[in-house]
Amino acid sequence: MLADLENALMCKCKDKCGKVLINCTCDTSNKTRADFQKLLDSGLTVQQIVQQQVALHGETILSAPTKIGFNLTAWVTPFAAILVGGYGVRRILNAWIRGKKAGTPASGEKSPDPQEPISSNYSRRLQEELDKLEI
Amino acid sequence: MNDLGEFALMVALATALYGCIGYVLAARGNRLDLYLSADKTPVIVWGCVVVASIALWKAFMVDDFSLEYVWAYSNRDLDVFYKVSSFWGGQKGSLLFWTLLLTSYMVVVYFQNRKRNAKLVPYALVVMLTITLFFLVLLNFSTNPFERIPLPPEDGRGLNPLLQNYWMVIHPPTLYLGYVGFTVPFAFALAALITKNLDDSWIRLTRKWTLISWFFLCMGNLFGAHWAYLELGWGGYWAWDPVENAAFMPLIIATAYLHSVMIQEKKDMMKVWNMSLILLTFVMTIFGTFITRSGLIQSVHTFDEATLGYYFLAFLGVIIVICVSLIASRLPLLRSKNELDSFLSRESSFLFNNLVLLGIAFATFWGTIFPIVSEAVRGIKITVGPPFYNQVNVPIGLVLLALIGIGPVIAWRRATWAHLRKNFFKPVLIALVFGVGLWIWALPSNRAEVYSFIAFVLCVFVMSTIIIEFLKGTLARSHLHEETPLQALGSLVWRSKSRYGGYIVHVGVVFIFAGIAGSQAYGTHIEQHVKVGESLQIRDYTLKYERLGFIQENPTKTRAVAQLGVYQNGRRVWTGQPEKEFYKGQNQPVSEVDVRSTWKEDLYIILADFKEDDSATLKIYLNPMVSWIWMGAWIIAFGTTVSVWPDRLEARRRLERMKVQDAVFSPAQE
After folding, report:
1. How is A29-91 classified by DSSP, letter by letter?
2. Cα nearest neighbour of A101 on chain B
3. Model ipTM?
4. What is the pLDDT of residue B669?
């Protein structure tokens, strides 16, 4: 119970240490923990104490944004960015694969001149062999 | 000496300015005399910065409190070891230290490339000189470390006690070596853009610089975590503090670059992407410096006089504008022939690896700036702390861990399903068997334990893929060359250092993931007030509080030391001695924790408080597998050393490969 509170709230020391209560070791944090323990012992729930603290100090006291209203964007944006990025990667890969297929000679196409120093077929095979060597 | 230091900084500024202008005018007007004259400036600037640094160090050593900076960060009783590190303990000195490292890198680049790479090197030096110029402007006009106090006091204020820890001596220089190191690939990338030499020569020139900078940044992050673990006394090692995030983001982006650049080296693809990534890495190092020194975002790590925000913001803006406009103007030249044989290929797995890495970097960036965004939109400044990052970054991190196992085993160009089945059957089977066993042994009961369970299974999967890769290679060599398995393993790694060095780095990363998973989900702690002779119990450890002693170490420092006998299964296994240190003139005492570290778990003891009757409040943490994180750091160090070790054979192979590729692809491109 106390650990849940310590995780949910920031330390409110005058130095503005910027630490979550559970990570803070200053005198203020020790006093705050003792006060919270008393509140828990008096029958208040974690949620009630958190609400009480927000009413007293504002949203800054919370260690993470709430998941409502504008704050929801904090939680959603990273995943949305990855999804959009994933869609983009997928499209790029498809375009590259299409590009490769378009560059490959179709069956029935005139075979390359055997007198050419390096034919496209040969160069492709050579590259494949080189790649195999690297693996 | 102080006058000399101050004068040296002024000369350095003037010389750097002359160097920048001289190089550019020489290039534009094709003036050899101007070029030869400007070409001496990197060494002169470095020499001046070295003189200024020696002057400041000397002031610390001789307790010259006529300098405001020495007075603020040292005192007569400070250990010589910490007088050395006080140099970078505050804003002014840390900027001088940054400049010292930057100019040192610049001089190495200068001598390394003096007689070659004539197309790129002068421009790369101009970029480095310009960045040096920015720092020298700050040092001369805004944060002069040689600022005097008219009536020098008898003694100094002393170094922040939290900084009096040997990890704090190692951590900042390591981190700075990483931060500053990325200036070199950045400078060469810009030089390539300016000169339109956009083949992969700038990548080849900076390959080792990038790896070494990545290594230092990685170590800097891990050393910082170790310092936090031992010195901050809260039982943890990473708090997702904005300044920690600032060091973490360039590391992650540089990791993405190190992977995607392999595709450019092998396939001549993704030129725009790689260029953007290396520029972004440097931009993030400056963003990190901006955060530390702006005071804009609340952090435990920011400097006391965080007043340089506007300078760094302006610098950041200029860099971004230059980078974006250069890339935009060179876009036609950067376009490469992008072709891919199959969706199932190492190339695509690297692209997804880049996506996930950048996802983590973006989530961290978004969390770091969200308080400012919220204040701008709603007028309410909120806090974004560890619960946010743990909920957002942990699932993304697990996907990354899976990709570490998948990527290296998939073939370049095209992998068939048969190939995948063959390569993944054994690792997946081993991971599944392990997973079932772990599930039966320790059924996850909360979200943290579920994440840890997934992480452990993935760690086993990744380790299996790596071990199988080593085994396959070793057996093949052993058969082909009739070597003993040990010889075959040695020559396998030796003959392909970058590849197997990379695998070793991956092993280190797996150790770090395992350490984080174990310590985050299965740790426990107690806090109890005890009298002398009383005992505490935490899991199978019994800790008997034996006594409290006081040591007056010097006139400004007193230590209160508690002694605890630690018993396991009735046998005394260790004596713990956590301390509380009191410094004259400091309001808050500092906790010095004592840790018994084994491969299995850390017993971490904090003396939280004590009373006149010698009774004490003790906090005891049992943190499983934390030592795995530090072990992972050393494995990464070993792997990176293997990767960057000079290899004539590899260099020759790469050269021959490039010749073959040129021969093969040039006619097609024409």
Report:
1. HHHHHHHHHHHHHTT--HHHHHHHHHHHH-GGGBSS--SSGGGHHHHHHHHHHHHHHHHHHHH
2. B341
3. 0.83
4. 38
